Amino acid sequence: MSKKFKVVLVGCGGITGAWMKSCETRDDLEIVGVVDLDESKAIALRDKHEFLKNADTGSSLQEMLDKKNPDIVFDCTVPVAHPIVTITALEHGCHVLGEKPLADNLADAEKMVAVAERTGKTYAVIQNRRYIKEIVALRKLVQSGKLGDLTTVNADFYVGAHFDGFRVEMEHVLLVDMAIHTFDMARYLSNTEAVSVYCHEWNPKGSWYSSGASVAAIFEMADGSVYNYRGSWCPEGLPTSWEAEWRLIGEKGTAIWDGAAEIKYEIPTDDKFIRTGKVETLDCSEAIEFAAHAGVINEFLESLKTGSTPQTVCYDNIKSLKMVLAAVESAETGKKIRI
Ligand SMILES: NC(=O)c1ccc[n+]([C@@H]2O[C@H](COP(=O)([O-])OP(=O)(O)OC[C@H]3O[C@@H](n4cnc5c(N)ncnc54)[C@H](O)[C@@H]3O)[C@@H](O)[C@H]2O)c1
């Protein structure tokens, strides 16, 4: 029997559903405490799940840490609370797996990374898209070299999500709360880093957010390729998938993915005016045992057992956050920003 980690979970809102589904079948962790500023939410979460029946509930993370001495804290709070929750947990000697984004500003994010380094604890961030089988397959296609070196990556994200709660009043809502998934996917797929961004942000007529529901951003990447992101959180009708729609153009060929099941690619082989080749469907049938949230949680726990480094460890994930924050700065100043 492997080590059973003692876990305290903080923040009991909408996203905990994905965490609970991933945790309830694991025999290597026990959630011993559930905390929310509003304790009634912690009680409701505990009462909803049989496997949480022995967990204590509370409204103070510090008190719960002192009482339970967990190995790990799962941070499912809102972005603005991530620094205080993560630093409190790390300083208490806990490893932390936290929701994205790492923080909503660079100063806090760098402090969190520094505290993780000083305390020698692992702090990793949920980027669940990296653990979706189509994305893993698409990355393998890029790495196989069949498309040649990537020159252009486009992602379109159009989901008219009628949230209530913190997002409605959040500044730069699409960039700060959502775009990091798509930006992180671009880093993952192209295996290169952003070096600059020009970003235009607006709040379309009819938007139910207070600001920044739509974005167009152009990133220059370190290998000379360009990553274009277009997105909105208030289009009505014909949404894209949550994973966005993608076009990856390499020197030799192109792959497109609608963000759902099917990835197509074409590597031209003739010498027509507009070159053509056989349009192939990428085989995405290879199942991954732990998908999405379960994948990040599994890799995090394995890293603690084996000493390996999770893909989304904070000092790497901060590069995705820097893309977001540079895009915000560009949107605010109207200037191209170096990252
Ligand atoms: N990975 C994904 O696909 C995904 C999807 C949705 C949300 N998220 C992220 O999950 C996080 C939470 O989102 P949500 O939709 O569940 O929000 P939510 O508003 O539904 O829930 C957040 C909960 O955290 C609690 N909270 C806030 N500050 C706290 C603190 N300091 N201590 C204890 N509790 C605190 C609130 O009372 C609330 O119950 C956000 O960072 C969001 O970006 C990730």
Sum up the structure in keywords:
23% strand, binds nicotinamide-adenine-dinucleotide, 9-stranded mixed beta sheet, 6-stranded parallel beta sheet, Rossmann fold, alpha/beta, Dihydrodipicolinate Reductase, domain 2, globular
Kindly state the percentage of residues in helix: 25-40%
Low-confidence runs of at least 5 consecutive residues:
none
CATH architecture of the largest domain: 2-Layer Sandwich
- Largest beta-sheet characterization: 9 strands, mixed
Radius of gyration: 21 Å
Bound molecules: nicotinamide-adenine-dinucleotide
Q: Structural class per helix/strand content? A: alpha/beta
**Total helical segments:** 9
